[in-house]
Amino acid sequence: MSVEKMTKVEESFQKAMGLKKTVDRWQNSHTHCLWQMALGQRRNPYATLRMQDTMVQELALAKKQLLMVRQAALHQLFEKEHQQYQQELNQMGKAFYVERF
To answer: What is the largest CA-CA distance in the chain?
Structure first.
């Protein structure tokens, strides 16, 4: 065989090997994808249960936080009203009775 034919044969062989590697990679990734999907379907109920548990915990913490925020706002409101009443009483020359120890 001539050198030109040998290089053409080698090129076609290299091309065929490249295509075979590409097909093998595609088959491996396809198999891996199918395996992941099957694994995900088996794990899905457990993940849903964990997610629901996490959501319940987050809701409980959110309720606690909301309660604390509302209590703080109410405390500030009462403090502001107390200051206002004290100023009004001072203007009239009166004051709240405060027991001293």
So the answer is: 122
Sign of the Cα torsion 58, 61, 63, 66 reads negative
What's the predicted TM-score (pTM) here? 0.47
Identify residue 82 by its one-letter amino acid code: H
The pLDDT tens digits for 11-68 are 788 888 888 888 888 888 888 888 888 776 777 777 778 888 899 999 999 999 999 9
DSSP 92: T
Task: Please answer whether residues 31 and 25 qualify as being in contact, where contact means their C-beta atoms are separated by less than 8 angstroms.
Answer: no
Residues 76, 68 contacting (CB under 8 angstroms):
no
Q: Tokens 């065989």 sit at which residue?
A: 1
Distance CA 92, CA 86 (A): 10
| Separation between Cα atoms, residue 64 and residue 71, nearest integer Å | 11
